[in-house]
TrEMBL record:
<keyword id="KW-0067">ATP-binding</keyword>
<feature type="domain" description="Kinesin motor">
    <location>
        <begin position="395"/>
        <end position="732"/>
    </location>
</feature>
<feature type="compositionally biased region" description="Basic and acidic residues">
    <location>
        <begin position="152"/>
        <end position="165"/>
    </location>
</feature>
<dbReference type="InterPro" id="IPR019821">
    <property type="entry name" value="Kinesin_motor_CS"/>
</dbReference>
<dbReference type="GO" id="GO:0003777">
    <property type="term" value="F:microtubule motor activity"/>
</dbReference>
<keyword id="KW-0505">Motor protein</keyword>
<dbReference type="InterPro" id="IPR036961">
    <property type="entry name" value="Kinesin_motor_dom_sf"/>
</dbReference>
<dbReference type="GO" id="GO:0005524">
    <property type="term" value="F:ATP binding"/>
</dbReference>
<dbReference type="GO" id="GO:0005874">
    <property type="term" value="C:microtubule"/>
</dbReference>
<feature type="region of interest" description="Disordered">
    <location>
        <begin position="152"/>
        <end position="171"/>
    </location>
</feature>
<keyword id="KW-0493">Microtubule</keyword>
<keyword id="KW-0547">Nucleotide-binding</keyword>
<dbReference type="InterPro" id="IPR001752">
    <property type="entry name" value="Kinesin_motor_dom"/>
</dbReference>
<feature type="binding site">
    <location>
        <begin position="480"/>
        <end position="487"/>
    </location>
    <ligand>
        <name>ATP</name>
    </ligand>
</feature>
<dbReference type="InterPro" id="IPR027417">
    <property type="entry name" value="P-loop_NTPase"/>
</dbReference>
<comment type="similarity">
    <text>Belongs to the TRAFAC class myosin-kinesin ATPase superfamily. Kinesin family. KIN-14 subfamily.</text>
</comment>
<feature type="coiled-coil region">
    <location>
        <begin position="347"/>
        <end position="381"/>
    </location>
</feature>
Length: 753
């Protein structure tokens, strides 16, 4: 992966990963202070060798050796992953440093150009003044010459006047010489300024070369991220194999537990048998003692009872046989005790092996959880780097959301024409659409399936909303045909907290973050405005006086104009702006604007939005401790849905509304196509909507578009058009987002930029 390192360092890195200690005494490993990986570096060949490494075992049933090898392999994998993460962090830090250096050099260049222009204007003024003085001196000289001629005629009469004229002529010649010297100095200054201008041009060309070098570095970083994704997929496959081995170890553990249970049962049966044998032995001893007493009594009485000699011999034989039986029982007892001791030892060994396997399994589970955590962290880092690359490229980000099936939708099996790729490269980013047997594939920044909740959607844009508090211009707008779920995505369902849309959730996050930043010295002021564009007419949804243009279709009522300033900010004249302090106040204003917005019923949607809704919040923040000032703008836009007149069945006022909506959306498409082709002229002024969105589409704003599509089979054509339009939008390059610092203006108008 790191192809620029020398061969010695690569061999050192790979030998450290493989646990080798054969280091060259003349070569020292590269230092990397503060890093967990030390000076280890990897190449692509090293990573492939590590991933393709096969475990070799002397005995395939020696699980302890296999587990140790697997633990060592996991350590090397973790070391490789840590090195990748540190390398990506260094790339991000270097990229940020280069970006700041580029902005500093551009700022210096602009300042030098301004100073050069000022100096040129001053020199032009000086040259004009010198030319005027030269003309006046020439006029004076002509007059003096005429007077000299008159004095020559009257030389005999006016000698004193002649001498005075000669003196004045001499003074005039001296002044002329001074003026000539000043002209020569001015010419030298002009030459030096021209030389400085040439130096500035050379410096500008060097800056352009440096910018191209930065772009190549950005492309290499993008390729590095792609390689990291491929390596991550390989690591995921290895994790799957580890899980399979973990399952096999668990099965072996269960079998060992079962065998231990059987051994314990055998031990219990042997203990019972030993107890029985001991009882028999005790009984036999008692019988033997009794018999011995009888033998003694008989031997004492043998002299008295000779007739009983035969019976005593039988008793002796019986006693001998019982002694033999007692010896046999002693031998059986010793054998049973040895078996019991062996069973105790085997049970102890089994228990120790069970404990060792249990510890090993626990350690493997911990390492597996650690690897999964690192994998999740790597995925988060990949997303962050992906978003950073997109911001540097200046592209408009596009999220796609498929509306779930509703109760009144047709339940035909043909409606399932959307599919989602499951490969690691396109998981969560790709969507496939099949129409008339032809498959169309699209890739966006994020794709939300029908079962995605409102909270999951908001999590993906929460960091973008946070950028408004950090001083960026942020614009999020929803696009799609009528009935595709745009208003549900932006506003949600009223009265159901779990289904709140992006606008209410964004406002809650902003006010929560505002409270959290107060201990750090930040104080924020927020202003809100809401408007709609209905039939190419702007309406103020927060106006205390009901707009009469709602009755006369925009022909009467207050007229609002859109103006853009030099800083890329947009102002709408006479628009109602409200200062807000809490999310509850904004929720009240949203409810008020929702009741004032134009909606209507069509054959495709019971409550179809008949206008473009624009919510704008201007955020001004001041840090009292650092005196840092930021100014951000959050634009949340719910566009009216495109529709076909043949399907919507619009007539009368609804027909006029449909024509105005389709016209403004086609103007938006013209703007997107012009931006995609990088044409010199972009038709922003063709509609009120595109002119209002000009800073978001062609400026330095962070812009995100939600394309909403319907799963209805009857809407397949419109869904395909929406996806194609979204792909065009995703390919458009706009300005790089810039943070607005130290921009406190006296005008309190709301900016849409």
């Amino acid at each position: 992966m790191v192809g620029t390192a020398n061969n010695g360092r690569l061999r050192l890195a790979f030998s450290l990963v493989n646990g080798s200690q054969d280091l060259d005494p003349n070569s020292a490993p590269p230092s990397n202070a503060g890093s967990e990986c030390g000076g280890i570096e990897f190449t692509r060949e090293d990573v492939e060798a590590l991933l393709n490494e096969k475990m070799k075992y002397k005995n395939k049933f020696n699980y302890k050796e296999r587990c140790e090898n697997m633990m060592e392999y996991i350590k090397r994998l973790r070391l490789c992953i840590k090195w990748f993460q540190e390398l990506e962090g260094e790339y991000a830090f270097e990229q940020e440093k280069l970006r700041s250096a580029l902005e500093l050099t551009e700022r210096r260049c602009s300042e030098m150009e301004v100073s050069l222009n000022n100096k040129e204007e001053e020199l032009n003024l000086i040259i004009l003044e010198l030319r005027k003085s030269l003309a006046s001196l020439q006029d004076k000289l002509a007059k003096e010459e005429s007077e000299k001629k008159a004095a020559v005629d009257s030389l005999t009469k006016e000698k004193e006047a002649r001498t005075s004229i000669e003196r004045s002529q001499a003074s005039l010649s001296e002044e002329l010489e001074k003026v000539q010297g000043e002209l020569d100095g001015a010419n030298q200054r002009i030459v030096s300024i021209n030389d400085m201008y040439k130096l500035l041009q050379e410096y500008n060309s060097s800056l352009q070369l440096y910018n191209s070098k930065l772009q190549t570095d950005l492309d290499t970083a993008h390729e590095t991220v792609k390689r990291g994704e491929k390596d991550r997929s390989a690591i995921v496959e290895n994790l799957h194999t580890l899980r399979g081995q973990h399952k096999s170890l668990q099965d072996q553990l269960l079998s060992s537990i079962a065998s231990q249970d059987e051994v314990m049962k055998q031990k219990d049966s042997l203990l019972n048998e030993v107890a029985c044998l001991r009882m028999e032995l005790r009984q036999t001893k008692e019988d033997g003692e009794h018999y011995q007493q009888q033998v003694q009594s008989l031997t004492a009485e043998v002299s008295k009872y000779k007739e009983l000699a035969t019976s005593s011999s039988e008793l002796e034989e019986k006693s001998l046989s019982q002694g033999n039986q007692i010896q046999i029982l002693h031998d059986q007892l010793a054998v049973a005790e040895r078996k019991l001791q062996m069973s105790d030892m085997s049970a102890f060994e089994t228990r120790n092996e069970f404990e060792a396997q249990k510890k090993l399994i626990k350690e493997l589970q911990n390492r597996l959880e650690d690897a999964e955590f690192k994998l999740i962290e790597g995925e988060k880092l990949r997303k962050k780097l992906h978003n950073t690359i997109l911001e540097l490229k200046g592209n408009i980000r596009v999220f796609c959301r498929v509306r779930p099936q509703l109760s009144d939708d047709s339940s035909s099996n043909q409606g399932k024409f959307f599919s989602y790729p499951t490969s690691m490269e396109y998981l969560g980013r790709g969507i496939d659409m099949t129409q008339n047997g032809q498959k169309h594939s699209f890739t966006f920044d994020k794709v939300f399936m029908p079962d995605t909740s409102q909270e999951e959607v908001f999590i993906e844009i929460s960091q973008l909303v946070q950028s408004a508090l950090d001083g960026y211009k942020v614009c999020i707008f929803a696009y799609g045909q009528t009935g595709s779920g745009k208003t549900y995505t932006m506003m949600g369902k009223p009265g159901q907290p779990d289904e709140k849309g992006l606008i209410p959730r964004s406002l809650e996050q902003i006010f929560q973050t505002k409270q959290a930043l107060q201990p750090q010295g930040w104080r924020y002021e927020m202003q809100v405005s809401m408007l709609e564009i209905y039939n190419e007419t702007i309406r103020d949804l927060l106006s205390p006086i009901r707009d009469s243009s709602r009755i006369e279709n925009g022909t009467a009522g207050k007229q609002y104009t859109i103006k853009h300033d030099a800083n890329g900010n947009t102002q709408v004249s006479d628009l109602t702006i409200v200062d807000v302090q809490s999310s509850r106040e904004v929720a009240y204003l949203l409810d008020r604007a929702a009741h004032s917005r134009s909606v209507g019923k069509t054959q495709m949607n019971e409550q179809s939005s008949r206008s473009h809704f624009v919510f704008t919040m201007r955020i001004t923040g001041v840090n009292e401790s650092t005196e840092q000032q930021v100014q951000g703008v959050l634009n949340l836009i719910d566009l009216a849905g495109s529709e076909r007149i043949s399907k919507s069945g619009s007539t009368g006022d609804r027909l006029k509304e449909t024509q105005a909506i389709n016209k403004s959306l086609s103007s938006l498409a013209d703007v997107i196509f012009a931006l995609a082709k990088k044409e010199d002229h972009v038709p922003f002024r063709n509609s009120k909507l595109t002119y209002l969105l000009q800073p978001c589409l062609g400026g330095d704003s962070k812009t995100l578009m939600f394309v909403n599509v319907s799963p209805e089979p009857s809407s397949a054509g419109e869904s395909l058009c929406s996806l194609r339009f979204a792909a065009r939008v995703n390919a458009c390059e706009i300005g790089t987002p810039r943070r607005q610092l130290n921009m406190r203006t006296s005008d309190s108008r709301l900016s849409y930029g």
